[in-house]
Amino acid sequence: TELQIVRPAAAMRVWHFPILIKRENTGQMEMKNRPQDLGDSLATGKKFRPLFWIGLALIINAVIIGASLFLNFHIHGGDNTGTSGGFDGIEIFFLPFFALSYLTCGIFCMSSRACHPRSCGLFILIIFNILSILLHLPVTYYFTGVRTPRPGASEAITRKVSTAWIRIIPEVVGMGLSVGAIVVAIQDLIRGK
Question: Whole-model pTM?
Answer without folding.
Answer: 0.71
